[in-house]
Specification:
- By secondary structure, the protein is α/β, with parallel strands linked by helices.
- It is built from 12 helices and 15 strands.
- It folds into 2 domains: 126 residues, Aspartate Aminotransferase, domain 1 (Alpha-Beta Complex); 238 residues, Aspartate Aminotransferase, domain 2 (3-Layer(aba) Sandwich), CATH 3.40.640.
- Strands 2-8-7-6-5-3-4 form a 7-stranded mixed sheet, with helices on both faces.
- Helix 1 runs antiparallel to helix 8, helix 2 packs parallel to helix 8 and helix 3 packs parallel to helix 4.
- It starts with 7 loop residues before the first strand and ends with a helix.
């Protein structure tokens, strides 16, 4: 993947560039593939065939069946579809949802919305690594529990949650289980049967597809009320004429990820560890946020105690990365993830999240290490 840039991009958990193979698959269809997939004449059938081919490619990446994939506009829509789709809004107080304090806002904010309507919501705490305890999940279950929603991997720390253990508990109590896998799909092996989940969220722009496309895995037999009502597309779960072009892009991105997943994991993890070893070898007092082993192979979240992460990155314009805190009128506000992990403010204020991807090279990581070490030392 060759994209010429005059900066070092270390923010692949925020978004990824479009893979050239994905781009080509879109362009090859853009001129004569404009038909409506619901139409039965040749132009419509061509669009429908392309749509179903893309659906198949998405399903293969996560070990699902083609008919279990619903195309959406993004991961946030997929999450909202599940959280709101399990509720009968005529009797919201009859329902209970369990989730965690480190979820993406597209899970946490819908639960707040539902809670205001009368749905009972339990938000579980996490430990210092950002891990949800399966025992806590079990203790939170009530007779009204209609859904458990725990993310597969955290976007800030990369910590991978014990989804298989939680799914066994959910099955024991016959409770539908959803996982937001937006940050995991394309970065680690994801298999819905092994995980044991009933719903799984995919976000296209996290795995080298364009923004504006996502998917939701819905296990056969599971029922959801549509978030969008209309013409009955996507098995009646998501009305609106399908965006064939972006579905093709997501399908291709999933095929690319499936083909090169092992290679990407090994290469990217090696560079991630290279960066981690360089920083911890030269800067005293650094703190690793997240689990040292149970994390995404591309993610490194480190804190420089006493120094604002934003100040560090502002002084190194060549590096594009994220922080885990924001400064407002001299007060440092930690992200909800770091807060949930009980990271002290003076430590979390210096959070830096580096998320690597296919764009990166060992030479870039060497250069980034040098710039970061120099930049941090200048502020200590």
């Amino acid at each position: 993947m060759k994209i010429r840039m005059d900066f070092i991009y270390l923010d692949h958990n925020a978004t990824t560039p479009i893979d050239p193979e994905v781009r080509d698959s879109m362009f090859s269809f853009i001129d004569d593939g404009f038909g409506n997939p619901s139409c039965t004449y040749p132009l419509g059938r061509k669009a429908m065939d392309a749509l179903e081919d893309a659906r198949e490619k998405v399903s293969l990446l996560i070990g699902a069946r083609r008919e279990e994939i619903v195309f959406t506009s993004c991961g946030s829509e997929s999450n909202n579809m599940v959280l709101k789709g399990v509720i009968d809004f005529r009797n919201p107080s009859d329902y209970h949802i369990i989730t965690s304090a480190i979820e993406h806002p597209s899970v946490l904010n819908p639960t707040i919305f539902l809670e205001e309507l009368g749905v009972k919501v339990t938000i579980l705490n996490v430990d210092g690594y950002g891990l949800v305890s399966p025992d806590d999940v079990k203790r939170a279950i009530t007779k009204r529990t209609a859904l458990i929603s725990i993310m597969l991997a955290n976007n800030e720390t990369g910590t991978i949650e014990p989804i298989e253990e939680i799914s066994k508990i959910a099955k024991e109590y016959e409770i539908p289980f959803h996982t937001d896998a937006s940050q995991a799909v394309g970065k680690i092996p994801v298999d819905v049967e092994r995980l044991g989940v009933d719903f799984l969220t995919i976000a296209g722009h996290k795995l080298y597809a364009p923004k504006g496309i996502g998917a939701l895995y819905v296990r056969s037999g599971m029922k959801l009320k549509p978030l969008i009502h209309g013409g009955g597309q996507e098995g009646g779960l998501r009305a609106g004429t399908e965006n064939t072009l972006l579905a093709i892009a997501l399908g291709t991105a999933c095929s690319v990820a499936r083909r090169r997943l092992k290679e990407d994991i090994e290469r990217i993890k090696q560079m991630r560890d290279q960066l981690q070893e360089a920083l911890f070898g030269e800067i005293d007092g650094l703190v690793l946020c997240g689990h040292p082993e149970k994390r995404l192979p591309n993610t490194l979240n480190v804190c420089v105690p006493g120094i604002e992460g934003g100040n560090i990155l502002e002084n190194i314009p060549e590096i594009y990365a994220s922080t885990g805190s924001a400064c407002h009128e001299k007060d440092v506000k930690l992200s909800h993830v770091l807060n949930a992990m009980n990271i002290p403010s003076h430590v979390g204020m210096g959070a830096l999240r580096f998320s690597l991807g296919r764009l990166n090279t060992p030479d870039q990581i060497n250069r980034a290490s040098e710039l970061l070490i120099k930049g941090i030392r200048a502020l200590i």
